[in-house]
Amino acid sequence: MQTSIASLDLPPFRPRFPWWGGDLQTVASRLRRGAAGLAPPAGERLRFSMTDGTGDTLLATLHRPATPRPGTPLVLLIHGLTGCEDSQYILSLSRLMLDRGHRVLRINLRGAGPSRALCGGHYYAGRSQDFRMLLGILPDDLKTDGLAAVGFSLGGAMLLKYLGEEGAAAPLVAAATVCAPIDLAVTCRHMMRPRNLLYHRYIIGMMKREATGEGAVLSAAERAGIMGSRTVWEYDDVFIAPRYGYADAADYYERCKPIRFMPAIRVPTLVLAAGDDPWIPSALYAGYDWAANPALQPLLPGSGGHVGFHGTGGEQPWSDLAIARFFDG
Q1: DSSP secondary structure, 140-206, as one string
Q2: Which of 17, 46, 58, 132 has the fewest other C-beta atoms within 10 Å?
Q3: 82 with 203: CB under 8 angstroms?
Q4: What is the pLDDT of residues 84-119, one digit of tens each?
Q5: For residue 95, which phi and psi values (nearest 5 degrees)?
Q6: What are the Cα distances from residue 250, in Å, to 119, 227, 316?
């Protein structure tokens, strides 16, 4: 919304040549992977042993700025579906936050990226308890200046659910989400449209490789169900839902969709989405009653694709700049 842009003192988003249209914005991050100057320097490897008795361990990378800015919170970054700490959108925002004096923690969710080999279980959009657990075991010295969090896509959905569950008790000073699927069932149906065939094929293939990778503890029936899934809905129906206590995919989507939890959010939260996102239907955002909760600050440009926002004015994604301005405020 333009009011939010004005409050951030940020120019409206304008796509940069040649990334015109939602599809090119969406694929640009992979095509431009490793863009010069947008990756952080080497960081410190941290290990977080989950306290739920599973024996699973999450890996994360901590970065400390060369010139710390007093009073700036640690920024935790949560990747999206089939992503990890090395996803381009995670790297670019890490670098910007470091340059602005923040410490940054790049998280690999349960069973994602480098955490895969150390986890028998797997993340999903509703697994907000993992984020709650992680905050509980963070070293005290990392929490002295406060905490902020950014979730991308599925990671954003999980973050919104967590914030709504915690309400005013959430130990965060600010949060932001980028292109989060705020209604899981509607988004899954949208992804399965014929025009998204290539996207869907790519995502389900990545999900299968991730779910069956080294470290995964699966029954023969679970492995067969995963590998036989033809759609994301079917994958969630035969694997995620029964494994984690849901009747089926529809039940999982209904009980975990962020819009059920967003009215209870009390942490100032920037909610960023693009009108031409080919994965997330823009009507979900346009139809939400943002005025009902002043803690939620929508920023909804007409273009930007899915976690794209490659705009004029430089290599840094426009979404990164918006989040940095919001956290400064």
Answers
A1: GGGSTT-EEEEEETHHHHHHHHHHHHHGGG---SEEEEES--SSHHHHHHHHTSGGGHHHHHHHHHH
A2: 17
A3: yes
A4: 999 999 999 999 999 999 999 999 999 999 999 999
A5: -60, -45
A6: 26, 20, 38
User: What is the pTM for the complete model shown?
Assistant: 0.95
Q: How far apart are CA 192 and CA 185, in angstroms?
A: 11
Count of other CB atoms within 10 angstroms of residue 136: 10
Cis omega (within 30 of 0) for bond into 18: yes
The gap from C-alpha 167 to its chain's centroid, in whole angstroms, comes to: 19
User: How far is the CA of 241 from the CAs of 9, 85, 118, 131, in angstroms?
Assistant: 43, 25, 22, 19
Q: What angle do CA 49, 112, 43 make, to 5 degrees?
A: 70
Per-residue pLDDT of 112-146, as tens digits, reads 999 999 999 999 999 999 999 999 999 999 999 99
Torsion of CA 14, 15, 16, 17, to 10 degrees: -130
Domains plus CATH for the chain?
2-182+258-328 (3.40.50.1820), 184-256 (no CATH)
Identify the DSSP state of 115. Answer: G
Helix (H) or strand (E) holding 47: strand 44-49
Q: Cα–Cα distances in Å, from 305 out to 8, 38, 265, 292?
A: 21, 19, 26, 27
CA of residue 172 relative to chain centroid, distance: 16
Task: Show the 3-state SS of 248-287.
Answer: CHHHHHHHHCHHHCHHHCCCCEEEECCCCCCCCCHHHHHC
Three-class DSSP category at 58 = strand
SS3 207: helix
Pairing verdict, β 44-49 and 57-63: antiparallel
Q: Do the beta carbons of residue 306 and residue 26 sit within 8 Å?
A: yes
Half-sphere exposure of 183 (CA within 13 A, CB side): 13
H or E segment at 220?
helix 220-228
